[in-house]
Amino acid sequence: MGPVGRALIWHELLERMRDRWVVVISILFALLASGVGLYGRSAEAEVAKLTGPSLVTLASLLVPLVALVLSHDAIAGERERNTLGLLLSLPVGRFEVVFAKLIGRSLALAVAVGLGLGAAIAVSDPDGARTLLALMGPTLLLGLAFLSIGLLISTVTRRQATAASVVVVVWFGLVFFYDLGILGLLVISDGGLPQSAVSALVVGNPAGLYRVQMMYQLAGPDVLRDLGMTTGLPGTAITWLLWCSWIVVPALISGALLSRRKVV
């Protein structure tokens, strides 16, 4: 990445760290995560089976929201302020612009995730802290996937208000209604949907993949059977391929679309 791209990464990080919505949601995440950590400590229960799953549920709700808020105006905001043409007139490629914005905003996301989970780790006992530390990497992957999706939405929309509306719809769709849709398919098919198809649908959504992966890691395979999944998770290679696809493919499509569009 050239000097303009590196400068853009630094600029994006500083600008996003001052975004009041990101700050508010990050503080809320930190407070709720601290509350979960304190509850797990006071309950004197096994952290991996109490605090961990609770934090997984909390992170699967708030981290995608932080990521989408961070990314929804990446391109649409520049276009609406009439600064996109000026930015692209600099000696920097359009794919480079997209990935510089993705990297800069990813660093801001890492700070938000570190603040939230770090607060829970700080109030946990040493055994609990080690367990919760294992959440850090997968939670960042979840956030990066939604950050890349938000970047694509920002590229295909022309106004920030439109992009904000679309990311809210996507957040509700993938975080809340996706699982209800799978449940509806099971009801309509009267349970005839193959378990392999159910598992594929669940892990085909980054929020579902994160929840199932972390529940399996923290609480064991019994928790999946309790959720009605009798087939196992995909292998490590497939899991990494799914995460890489969710993070890289939307950003590549964003770069391709930006390269094909005429910017005035």
Name the descriptors.
264 residues; mainly alpha; 13 helices; 0% strand; globular
What do you see in this structure?
- There is one protein chain.
- This protein is mostly helical and 264 residues long.
- Helix content is 80%, strand content 0%.
- It has helices at 3-17, 20-43, 51-71, 76-80, 84-88, 94-122, 126-133, 136-156, 160-188, 195-203, 206-219, 222-226, 236-260.
Tally the helices: what do you get? 13
Mass-distribution shape: globular
Please state the CA-atom Rg, rounded to the nearest Å: 20 Å
**Major β-sheet annotation:** none
The portion of residues assigned to helices is: over 70%
| Strand/helix succession | HHHHHHHHHHHHH
Termini separation: 25 Å
Oligomer: single chain
In total, the number of strands is 0
Content-based structural category = mainly alpha
Q: Concise description?
A:
It is built from 13 helices and no strands. The protein has 264 residues and is mainly alpha-helical.
Write the layout of secondary structure elements.
Elements: H1 3-17, H2 20-43, H3 51-71, H4 76-80, H5 84-88, H6 94-122, H7 126-133, H8 136-156, H9 160-188, H10 195-203, H11 206-219, H12 222-226, H13 236-260
